Amino acid sequence: MTEIGIVAVGGYNEMGRNMTAVIIGEDIVILDMGLRLDRVQIHEDVEIDKMHSLELIEMGAIPDDTIMKEISGTVRAIVCTHGHLDHIGAIPKLAHRYNAPIISTPYTAALIKQQIEAERKFEVCNRVIPLNAGGTYQVTEDIAVEFINVQHSIIDCVLAVVHTPAGAILYACDFKLDRTPTMGEAPDFERLKALGKGGVIAMIVESTNAGRSGKTPSEQIAKDMVRDVLLGTEESEVGMIITTFASHIPRLKAIIEAAGEMGRIPVLMGRSMERYVGAARDLGYLELPSNVEMYGQRKDVDRAFKRIIQEGKNKYLPIVTGHQGEPGSILVRVANGETPYTIEPGDRVIFSANVIPSPMTQANRYALETKLKMRGARIYDNVHVSGHAYREDHWELLRMINPEHVIPAHGDMEMHGHYIEMAEDAGYVLGDTVHLLRNGEVLYIEE
Q: I need a surface site. Which of 23, 127, 219, 369 has the fewest CB within 10 A?
């Protein structure tokens, strides 16, 4: 019988730097290769193109894949489930070590290519192969990778299934069970149910929000919240500035549509806005109204801000980076008085994003909000819904798939603990059928 091993390379001690390797006899499939964003004070506007992988491993910013030297076998494929940096951000630093193609959805593939082109330290020559949700890629004669459509806070996200001679392994990092998405299709429940009926040896699953009760609200709710905050006011002439994740294309689309209803010109600002939105537009995922403006470079952003102040804040809706208080981001520069755009008493600043739960990020965000308030800004925070499954979504997926073994990933010890408690409610036994792994550990599944 083919021996199956699960290698926890990164993302098992923390949120971020996700990387898992599945050993199938003499073959290996790598799942994700991400960054840990808070480790180097970085974010969607990050530039680590000149840094060495060893330096980044030492910082804890990318997975320590030196463990792979101890694993016998050949890496046949690198599979990425979606385009967030905590899942693809380490590809420019690590992928060249493996003579294997990178398989991902078309939007993710475009973002990976951008990352590889920006890299200055290593030459990454791996082929990038786009695979649509619902598609299957034959990795070897007896190993295939299947993509199942799912929703998350970025477009073109999938769950990956590694089909092996011993059975299927499902990799479910990251997802939400959103039946009314504002972009793309609802999750492919029919395929998930069929997969569960066919038998799944192991499910590797994110645990990020496993401790939050109930189910994750739909993106449709966030769209309504954005519209309510932007349009639901009698003070419609004040300056308004909104910030969200540059990679959250459905949210940006909702903001741009609301700006149209308000009679304001949407202005996207930030290098990452240009990257993510530009790729979505070029691939036909997003159609932008003709009046949308987009500026990535600092001088262009400041020139646009100058024009906005001259022509009147009430005519524009700047959509900017900086919701986590990242040093050098546009909203931070506005708060510090480093741009021509000045915040006046009564101006609104809307955060369509949550605070990433790490002490450094929370401190940065607190400092940002304090500076904005000192200038007289009215703060609207958490106009947002999560892209990660809550406890009852996890319960639903677990019951649907009914895997023999379940392994929480993409989270810290507390998050894994919440997931394990829920799995125990479903009849799983810690150490026997539900497994707690730490970075650098290998779990062999006896079939």
A: 127
The answer to whether the annotation marks 224 as part of a ligand binding site is no
Asked if 187 and 280 sit in the same domain, the reply is no
CA distance 250 to 235: 26
Same domain for 56 and 149?
A: yes
Question: Is 80 in the same domain as 164?
Answer: yes
The one-letter amino acid code at 377 reads A
Q: H or E element: which one contains 303?
A: helix 298-311
Per-residue pLDDT tens over the stretch 325-365 = 988 899 999 999 999 999 999 999 999 999 887 788 889 99
pTM of the entire predicted model: 0.94
* 96 is known to lie in a ligand binding site: no
Quick check: bond before 432 cis, omega within 30?
no
Domain interval for residue 326: 219-380
φ, ψ for residue 224, nearest 5 deg: -65, -40
> Is residue 445 helix, strand or coil?
strand
Considering its fold, how many domains does the chain have in total? 2
Together in a domain, 40 and 105: yes
87 is known to lie in a ligand binding site: yes
Q: Are residues 346 and 258 in the same domain?
A: yes
Q: Is 228 annotated as a binding residue?
A: no
- The answer to whether the CB of 7 falls within 8 A of the CB of 51 is no
84 labelled ligand-binding: yes
> Which helix or strand (DSSP H or E) is residue 128 part of?
strand 128-130
Least confident of 29-38, 148-157, 246-255, 291-300: 29-38
Residue 223, pLDDT > 90, answer yes
